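G., the chain you wanted modeled:
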Amino acid sequence: LGSDLLTSLRDKIYCLSDSIMDGEKRRSAFFFFENVFYNDLRDPKNVDYSQAIIQWQQNIDDNSGSSVESYKSKKMEETKWEDLLVRCGANYLYCHQGNCEHIVVINFIRFAIKSDKQNISEYPLHVFQNKVRTRKCKVCDIYPAKYVTYSGPFADE
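Predicted structure as tokens:
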């Protein structure tokens, strides 16, 4: 819904990296729509990942004299869907956990009709979820692996 905050989408996205290692503690994330970073800064411990990128772009612009549109940064917890400028079908970026990146595509935007779900907590609608591939433990071959090693003396991969 247009009045929903962008954090409603962020909270609906499931990624396995949010639940492994220290994923529960690291809640920093951003969306990148049309040259604007929308950072999740609801928790005071969250990191604004976009600042390093914006600073890098400004340094390149200063050194090259180019006139590329500068990136901007906003808080996703203060941004409503109706405030966004997006293009249907365009690829956008969702990044969290420091380096876990996902492509976000907005397929269509329309007004709600009577046959739509009436419970506003169900929006934004979740229409696709990539299949999570869990590795089984190579010792017991039953339970999911807690750790995966590569190129070790006992690793077969």
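Helices lie at 7-12, 50-64.

Shout if anything looks off.
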